[in-house]
Amino acid sequence: CGASLAAAASCTVQVSFSPSVATVRLGTLTVADSAAGSPHLVSLAGTGIALPFLVPGSLTFGVQPVGRASAGQTVVITNAGGGVLGISSVTTGGEFPQSNSCAGHSLEIGASCSITVVFQPAASGTRTGQLSIAYSGGGGNATVVLYGTGFHQLLLPLVAR
Q1: pTM (2 d.p.)
Q2: CA atoms within a 13 Å half-sphere pointing along the CA-CB vector of 104
């Protein structure tokens, strides 16, 4: 705003919020000037949220025979900070079954849990799915995109020669 401001003029003060914990944070902006009632106080409030960090962001299973499960691939969820991260649910579609140590648990800052996903195609062709993670401590959803290709195995009779 500079050292002085003309009568009836205005200026803008920008305030940013970078919370270190997942909770409500309060603050005060103090403006000292030569006007009556100085200093002027502006109350500030914000809520920090905990966010998950997913590795990897997508899984590719390659080509897999229809009806047969692939080897599992793992997604790791790490609480990247801001407070406790509660994992309320972990879901996938039918062709990408999963097992996990995350749903129903809370992760402290820096803690991790894992999800193992397999690909079991029901039909041939390119198949896609989504791993969805619902979390609290900021609330929200995180997703991992899933890819695979199903193919039908042909069983040929053996011919004796």
Answers
A1: 0.67
A2: 3
Strand order in the sheet with 105-107: 58-65, 140-151, 125-135, 85-91, 105-107
Amino acid at 50: A
Please give the Cα distance from 49 to 32 (Å, whole number). 32
CA angle 19, 21, 24 (to 5 degrees): 75
pLDDT tens, residue order, the chain (161 aa): 888 888 888 888 888 877 666 567 788 889 888 888 889 888 888 876 656 777 788 999 999 999 999 999 999 998 887 778 889 999 998 899 999 999 999 998 889 999 999 999 999 999 999 999 998 865 678 899 999 999 987 765 666 66
